[in-house]
Amino acid sequence: MPIIRRSSDFSTFSTKFQRSNDNDFPKTASFCCTRKALRNSNAGQMQTKQTSDMKVMKVVTLRMILNNKQTYKIFEQFLEDEHSDENLEFWSDVNTFREESTKKKKKHAQKIYSRFIKESSKREVNLDFSVRKQMERDLKTCEAEIFNDAQEIIFQLMDKGSFIRFKNSSKFRKCEVILHLSDKDQIEKCNSPKR
């Protein structure tokens, strides 16, 4: 069997080997290749892995940031530094409102309205007049969905505004690492044998 000396020889040989039938080679056949050929082969695998890791990092969304406690805190800090954290606070408060018992809902709805929706309030969020008026009417019945439209509007504002600025910051790169590592942990948990 010839000794393979160059990586081009290795690829030619491996192509011939793949095309041939298993019976064409004795079971004890040994293959020799230089370290350079192995290095080139491993480098190609490493590049592919890095590229696939980068693809994972490119698809980080605002929802992913908000659903992870660590990245949520980092995003919150970024918004505080930017003096635009009222949107996130409103979004979070509405989530808390949804989880509360019916007895507490009405009081909490009034608090959210006076803090974020009412005109000239200290933490007023950017909503148009018709949405504000609709919520004002809905406060009387205090349905669980009262803030759904407003929350979605605020989410879109964050996604198209502050989140884009956040993506250009070093804090976002920290979030990418955290989310990437937590994904790896989830995969390892799924793949680990159950006892």
What's this, in brief?
About 70% of the residues lie in helices and about 0% in strands. By secondary structure, the protein is mainly α.
Main features:
globular, 195 residues, mainly alpha, 10 helices
Structural overview:
Helices cover 70% and strands 0% of the residues. It has 10 helices and no strands. It is globular. The model is unreliable at 4-57 (pLDDT under 50).
Taken in chain order, the helices and strands follow as HHHHHHHHHH
How does the major sheet shape up? Answer: none
What low-confidence regions span 5 or more consecutive residues with pLDDT below 50? 4-57
Report the sheet-strand fraction.
Answer: under 5%
Q: Terminal Cα separation, in Å?
A: 47 Å
Mean pLDDT: 75
Q: How helical, in percent, are the residues?
A: over 70%
Structural class determined from secondary elements:
mainly alpha
Q: Estimate the global geometry from the Cα principal axes.
A: globular
Number of strands: 0
Number of helices: 10
| Gyration radius over CA | 28 Å
Task: Give the SSE map.
Blueprint: H1 7-19, H2 35-58, H3 62-66, H4 69-82, H5 86-99, H6 102-117, H7 129-138, H8 148-160, H9 162-167, H10 170-191
Helix pairs in contact: 2-10, 4-10, 5-6, 5-8
